[in-house]
Amino acid sequence: MVFFGTIASWAIELIKQFTYLAILLISFLGTSTLFIPFPLDTIISFSSFILGLNPFLIGIFAGFGSSLGELISYFVGLGSRTFIKEKRVNKKTSKFVLFMTNLFKKHGIVIIPLAAFIPFPFDVIGISAGIGNYDIKKFFVATLIGRVLRCMLIAYAGYKLIPFIEHLW
User: Fold this and answer.
1) Rounded Cα gap, residues 11 and 168, in angstroms
2) Are 151 and 44 in contact (CB under 8 A)?
3) Is the Cβ–Cβ distance between 86 and 34 less than 8 Å?
4) What pTM value is reported for the model?
């Protein structure tokens, strides 16, 4: 728990100095780690409440940065696909690759923004989209839509709800 507090403190200090560009960088770093939790939602909500930054702009910068960071998991999946093909891994794995390819071709435009919006380990989606060889431009745009909306919601929640809760205390 101390680790998250240290990261959050570092991030808030960075945001105080570089505002929205720091939010973009922190969002990129927070989502580029595979399966390692990062207190990005807390940092986004505190940026609007404690620092008084514009929640709309926080959503744009944080959404863009986190979408860029999610490309890391996409490339891991894409590399896995190449590895699977080169090593001619067993039939079950080949069927899985075919399943992912078909799944993202048919439903990727719905799955990706929805998964990017909800609190879900999105690395799984990024890796799966890479394995499924989903178009990278479509992946990025769909991720961007979901992440910008999510980050805006979190920023506005911090901006409006934290003062309300503080008032109740």
Assistant:
1) 28
2) yes
3) no
4) 0.86
